[in-house]
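Supplementary Methods, section 5.1.

A reviewer requested that the exact input to the structure prediction be made available. We therefore reproduce it here, unchanged from the version used in the analyses.
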Amino acid sequence: MSGLEASAVMGKPISFLSVDAEGAASLEEMWKQVASTGGHWEGDVWCRSAEGDEYALRISATALRTENGRIDQYVLLLSDITERKRDEERIRYQANYDALTGLPNRSLFTDRLQQAVLSASRGQQRVGLMFIDLDGFKAVNDNLGHDMGDFLLKEAAKRISSCVREYDTVARLGGDEFTVVMPNIESSRDGAIVGQRILKSLDAPFVWGDRVGRVSGSIGIAMFPEDAPDAETLLRNADAAMYQAKSQGKANYQFYTADLNQEVHERQTIKEGLIGALERQEFQVHYQPRVSVAKGAITGVEALLRWKSPELGEVPPDKFISVLEEAGLMPDVGTWIIEQACRQQVEWRKAGVDNMRIAINLSVRQLRRPGLAAKIREIAEQTGANTSRLELELTEIMLIKDAESCVTTLWELRELGIKLVLDDFGTGYSSLTYLRRFPLEIIKIDTLFISGIATSSDDADMAKTIIDMGHGLGKTIVAEGVETEEQLAVLRTLGCDDAQGFLFCPPMKGSELNLLLARGRWQKAGG
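The structure derived from this sequence is encoded token-by-token as follows.
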């Protein structure tokens, strides 16, 4: 590496080596030590060749004395250790930096966070810590390939890094998790500004050749010393805030609050309980009738998942459904729900309730899983169910985020005779484009607009707009969460087609609905 030949250096003074300031200081120390003690010195120095290339030498210097003890000359042994030094640097780099993105890894991040907290505690300063999780990354990785996933991670690392100061530390902890250490920030407002920048940077599509990936970010922010006394607790609390951001619909940032630890503990307990719950037969499917607003006839039912844990008891759906999704358990549980709904349809047929329509909620991962339509066809054939009497409910956010990948699947489902339902309309992007593009036949107005429909003119106007627009596109309109006669009366005036809610019937086991379904009509209490 050095290009030095023994014949070219023999007998030459050490000054022929071109060294940097650190190397010059090492050589000066060598002369001092050897001259003063008359002993031995050994050290490493970086040099530069005539061509400008760097190389490393190990120099061993020994003083030779005359018979009377006077130093007569020095002998220097030069060894080229460039490759060894390069190897050491590579090992050191690999130990501290992420191979894919070049960002600091968990080890270096931990060290820098600890140093930032220590420095802040001495100088009475603040440290902000962000925990960032990329929403939707697994779908990109699964559907567009691991090479596209790697590209996205590298690009996301660049985008996040571009949003922070030069002396902040952006690190990749692993997978799709990133952190940002922000030493010496004035207030939480600074953290909010950076969070907004990062969310905006991640919002743009990731384009690689003919492949386009989309992700968003869930960001948790914790502050030292307000939220934690040390680095370890600060990280844990930022992580808790990140999960809070996910639970708020993703693509947002949340600051840590003291009650989040309880929520995180609760979610972890639920997650542990859900693992194996399907095999232990802890789930049930309940059904809630859907009623014609004009005639009171029962037009179908919605299948709703319920979980009774031996340890936790009956866990509310809003507590465990999102955990099922995050834990990757929803595709298998969703398939089981479809099986149960098909079997229940056949049971009702045997009981004289023929061709009852059953609506089933689809999860994001179910929609993304290849072969969904084929799987439903297989289940229907095995159980004897009629697919033309099945409905599948999707949310707006599912269609927006996975428009390209799911359009083929939706048409395959439609070819089976399955009706597709747009659930929770009005809570997302509410785009007319996908109402025309996708084979959607039913629109469900979210409870958010129905709850105040009898008392708020704004809510009534919003409901009327959705109903009129839906009818203009040839869609059936269903109102969710109807609880009072007054709400039902307004919906009847507005021309809403169907409604469901506790006014008519709470979700019940299939066997408990036999009498009501056989009658075929809803009757109010005392009616």
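The first strand starts at residue 40 and ends at 48. These observations are discussed further in the main text.
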